[in-house]
Amino acid sequence: MDKRTNPFHDLYVSESIGHDRFVKLFSPFLVEHALPLFDSGNVVLLGVQGSGKSMLLNLLKPDTRIAYALANVKYPVPKSFSNFISAGINLTRCGILDFGQRDNGSFADDSGETIPIYFGDFLNYWIVADILNSIEKLSANQQTKADLFIDNDQSIMDEWAKELKNDDCWFGYLSDVTNYFDLKKKIAKRINDYRSFLNFNTQTLSGDITSTKTSVGVPISHTVAFLKKYAVVPTEVNFFIRIDQYEELTRLDSIGDKASEYQQIINKALGLRDPNLSYRIGSRRFAWRKELRMYKSGAIVEEERNYKIVNIDSILRRKENRRTWIFPDFAKDVFDRRIGMTDFGLPPKNKNILQFVFGSNIDSVGLAKKYAGSSSQRLLRLDDSWPKDWCDFLTSLSSQDPLSAKLAEGWCRQQGKQNIMYNFPRTPPFPWEKTYWKKERLDQALIQIAARCGERLKWSGIDDVIALSGGNILVFVSICQHIWAAWIRDMRGSEPDTALPQIEPELQTVGIHEASMHWHDKICYENGGNDRKRFIDYIGTLFYQSLTEDKAMSYPGNNGFSLRVSELENDHYLRYFLDDAVDYGDLHDSSHTTKTKDRELRRKWYLNPILSPFFRIPVAHTKEPMYITVKEVRTWLLKSQLGETAVRKVDKTKPDGGTVQMPLFECDKGKA
Amino acid sequence: MIGDHFRPWGPFTWVLDRLQAPEWDYFGCHSTEERCVGALSVLELKTKSRNKKLVRVIDPPSQYSSRSESLLASTRTQFGNYIADDDIEEMSLFTDISTVAKLVTRFVAESCGKVVIDISSFPKRFFFPIVKLLMLNDKVTDLVATYTFPATHSQSFLAENPETWLNIPMFGPQNFPEVTTDYAIVGVGFHTYGLPELLKNEYSKSTVKLFFPFPPGPPSYQRTWEFVREIEKYYPLRSSTQIVRVDAHDVSDAFSYICSITNKGANSAVMAPYGPKPMSLAMCIYATLSNSPVYYTQPRVYNPDYCVGINKINGVPDISSYCIKLNGRLLYSLDN
After folding, report:
1. Per the structure, how many domains does chain B have?
2. A49 neighbors A231 (Cβ within 8 angstroms)
3. Region A592-615: what's the mean pLDDT?
4. One domain, residues B120 and B191
């Protein structure tokens, strides 16, 4: 690979790059953390875009398995879990969603009631066809054929077809089939007939379809049962049925009013708890919960009873305890694989390549000095009423240690701490450098220094890159892509070095800002994205203003907001909006322990970390977020959709302070 | 013979003069855009329109709703007596397409067979199925599509809140078992709406061809190149032949390009009509004839100020018209 080629240019790894490269680039890191996915039983795989959800589901596909066999590389699923064959349907690509475009009259039974049944029938035939396709593909490769003990000799398959066609589940549709080839042709004909009808190329469905509608899941199950009966595959082989794009159903106005019933049909298949089949559904977290009813049944599908949940976001996002956080290792694996495909001379084996390229973060003191530059006094906002001695001290301190000076400024503005101005230590230890007080305000102080000095925030080093990725591997690769692009631009005209580069912090900052801008632009690419982007822009600006104008640094946690769960439950629209923003990755949420007297359960929301550079706010979640009410978030939403920008003043001492935001701090009144 | 291959197109008045039909039926769109009035006004002046049907497409409620209402009232006034209120059918943007099909069927049943379809202001979700239905209906002997160029396009978002990548109704995938798509043909427009990632995800094994409107002119060329740049981020263009410069006005030429790329339909292709409407019309005609799927990320809301005014050349409204069917003969086929 040419050294000017960006190893992160392709954000996604697909089989189109060739099986050798594919298996080298494909990271199986998540497999061991998502083992239920490879075991029998239905699984719903939850995660936002880029979380690694598709990557895991791709691992189930025959093509991926064959790629490993062709490359002569061990399939990365543990042997005890690799005894499976998968087939699937992509709901938004196969045409199945167009049933809602036909009016009831064009169905022979003249009833819209049956449309979901046709949906289920289409799904049955499609998946049966794909099962046969998977078996053919896997048996065409000697390795996978041997691994799965597939015996699909023509004569066996013909006998299999002859028995399967007589099964009651088909209602006679396959009765004229004489062999395996005929059976495949007949299944294909039914799908083609459906597609002609759905594309308005034919006006009605033929009688042999309308009179033989099948029950969802049943023909798939019987097909598998007969495959095992005829020993085409051993009885222990699991059959995983992937349903792609299930989550999109409730978001599509284009497909008419049947989306919910389509989901109920699929839920019905899950509810069968069929020992022959295990369904695999990828979904966003909240999208999955929107419809749990089973078609024409009062029952709902239940977690643990009908399906298991594997939540990738939960696995990859950082918890309180960093020791259990696996994302850094995942990112490292992906990084190593990408760099491993280049011709760069690598550092010694025991070196962490990710650490080698991006280095460590610049410490806060160093950052403050960089922001302050040569005229450090700019960073201070001195009040006329302050004693001259104190002002002189702060000015002097700012030239030696800008960060300490800014913290001192904040300290003296806090309630009950004003006396420091009249009696302060001239040398360390300073009271504003108490470990926790300082730690909680470092980011806010840096933001205020950068803002006062007209500098943009600097981001670099392995910790920043990992933190900004927010547990999302696509964001991580995208950050690497932009940093690498900045590095390539920087070395224009010079001969590429053979050694792996150690990219300068300044270039990393450039790349990270570009990546942040890209992810900000990308918000509106998704369904409902423009509305969410306006909201994100509003609160992002609000957070920035709140953090920079809070001179006393009383609210270092104002890069997030918190609502009482009980209050939000009563506002379905807002809850839906916020859930959507979480599902699309624009906001990150979690429950948290309240610090208020009511002790009520609360949820808090923060911007996706990659948006932090764009909005010039910190990534870390320090102290308490804004404690606010549903009414206030409603106001933000309304203002943002009307194109208003967030204008506010936090500083209560300022007489002309705006009133828009003050109520946000009702619970904290009098603190600052 | 040139007569077998000639697909007349040009300024609407010029084409009408040569077709010399005494009367036409008109199918159009009543929208917030002033240009929706253009083609019918010319038709009324030059000849006679006997049967008129307009669809007023209503977006889901949004912050633009009141602005839309006011602009709709304004364009209704501009239509004046050319139409009666009964000629307008109101439909929601996401109406099931069978409702549109029924309207077209009723329209054709009362038609003289000579139909002008004005695609200027129709969302693709509507004009693709309408053109397909009119093309395939034998009762329609003459079909002319018109497109009125606006004076300017909005510099901000033209449309918002795109849905996921889904086929346009009536233009879903047809053949099963499915084969790998040979070509993904993309009309280059102003906004990609997440298309680059989709190309990378879904069509990594296909060759992407970008139909770039040519000649590009300010101010739109910067936005169209930005579109290409966005695609390039996700889907590296490996050859200069992947960008195909196509006259943004010339439906016939764009159609021929598609035919040559797909070897007259022998190679499979999907269409992604993000470019100018005449280019999209060429994709619609090709997809109708070849049963190729057409995918789009349908916006939920259109900017009511999507475009402003009507472009004029020497004081004459800039309306292009494209003959699709004449005297019962379809002028487009995969063979020529």
Report:
1. 2
2. no
3. 92
4. no
Residue B115 and residue B85 share a domain: yes
Structure tokens at A484: 């690498």
Q: Is B176 part of the contact surface with chain A (CB cutoff 8 Å)?
A: yes
- Looking at the structure, do residues B32 and B148 belong to the same domain, yes or no? yes
Range of the domain at B177: 164-297
pLDDT digits (tens, 9 = 90+) for A345-379: 988 877 899 999 999 999 999 999 999 998 888 89
Contact across the interface for B204 and A12, Cβ inside 8 Å: yes
Cα separation, A144 vs A148, whole angstroms:
6
Helix (H) or strand (E) holding B260: helix B251-261
In angstroms, rounded to a whole number, what is the distance separating the alpha carbons of residues B242 and B185? 9
ipTM: 0.94
Confidence of residue A659 (pLDDT cuts 50, 70, 90): very low
B207 interfacial to chain A (CB closer than 8 Å): no
Burial class (CB in 10 A: 0-12, 13-18, 19+), A422: exposed
Q: For residue B248, what is the domain's CATH number?
A: 3.40.50
Mean pLDDT of chain A: 90
Inter-chain contacts counted by CB atoms under 8 A, chains A and B: 127
pLDDT of residue A2: 65
Least Cα distance to A563 among A586, A539, A537, A592 occurs for: A592
With CA atoms as reference, the chain B residue closest to A519 would be B194
Beta strand ranges found along chain B (DSSP E) = 9-11, 23-29, 48-58, 88-92, 114-118, 142-148, 152-153, 159-162, 166-167, 183-187, 207-214, 243-247, 269-273, 295-296, 299-302, 307-308, 312-313, 316-317, 319-326, 329-330
Task: List CB contacts (< 8 A) between B298 and chain A.
Answer: 254
Q: Decide if A224 contacts A277 (C-beta within 8 A).
A: yes
Q: How far is the alpha carbon of A184 from chain B, nearest alpha carbon, in Å?
A: 10
- Are B298 and B138 within 8 A, CB to CB? no
pTM: 0.91
State how far residue A22 is from chain B, nearest Cα, in angstroms. 13
Cβ under 8 Å to B: A residues 518-537:
518, 522, 524-531
Q: Please, are residues A261 and A249 in contact by the beta-carbon 8 Å criterion?
A: no
Average pLDDT over residues A22-49: 92
The pLDDT value given to residue B273 = 97
Confidence band, pLDDT 50/70/90 cuts, at residue A660: very low
What integer is the mean pLDDT of A619-626?
92
What does pLDDT average to over chain B? 91
Pairing state of beta strands B48-58 and B23-29?
Answer: parallel
* Least confident interval from A179-188, B51-60, B237-246: B237-246
At B207, is the secondary structure helix, strand, or coil?
Answer: strand
